[in-house]
């Protein structure tokens, strides 16, 4: 990891973890992929390592991130999906040529050759969760400064925060201090 940047918020769901590279959207936003190299770091953490990224490719990645956020937010609210966001997600998915490969250990790895391939994998993951193909539900973080879309796979499907260690803890601490 590169020093001097905010830590990544890592989650189990690729697409919503990618939207988490911009946090506190309704407060003081924290950009976690401010440079092409930082995007490369994030992709590597998720098994989507590529050798290089340009500023223009970073812009495409951010456009995809914001499109996934918009579509996931609409889906969580059971609103119509934004047409422009759907188009970006579909375009990124179609432009990627990643291949899923089975390792001898029985796990899946991605064969990635470019940023387009990596973004295609992220877009395909977003399509899967927004279309309701996975066991879970899209929800929005209860933190008023965050409101990030996340994929809730808890048994009761009642999770309130995108991340208990950040947003959940902050809200519980605020409630405790308000009672004093």
Give a written overview of the molecule.
The chain is mainly α and 180 residues long. The protein has a domain at 14-134. It has helices at residues 14-19, 36-45, 55-76, 83-95, 115-130, 164-179, and strands at residues 22-23, 30-31, 99-102, 108-111, 137-140, 149-152. Strands 1-2 form a two-stranded antiparallel ribbon. A hairpin with a 6-residue loop joins strand 1 and strand 2 (30-31). Helix 3 (55-76) packs across helix 4 (83-95). The longest helix has 22 residues, at 55-76. The mean pLDDT is 90.
Alpha-beta content class? mainly alpha
Q: Sheet bearing the most strands, described? A: 2 strands, antiparallel
Instruction: Please estimate the helix content.
Output: 40-55%
User: What integer value in Å does the Rg equal?
Assistant: 17 Å
Order of helices and strands: HEEHHHEEHEEH
The helix count comes to 6
What is the overall shape?
A: globular
For the termini, the CA-CA separation is 40 Å
Note the beta-strand portion: 5-15%
Low-confidence stretches: none
Strand order of the largest sheet: 1-2
How many E-type strands?
Answer: 6
Mean pLDDT rating: 90
Topology at a glance:
Elements: H1 14-19, E1 22-23, E2 30-31, H2 36-45, H3 55-76, H4 83-95, E3 99-102, E4 108-111, H5 115-130, E5 137-140, E6 149-152, H6 164-179
Antiparallel strand pairs: 1-2, 3-4, 5-6
Helix pairs in contact: 3-4, 3-5, 4-5
Pfam family, one: ABATE
InterPro entries: ABATE, ABATE_dom_sf, Znf_CGNR
Organism: Kribbella jejuensis
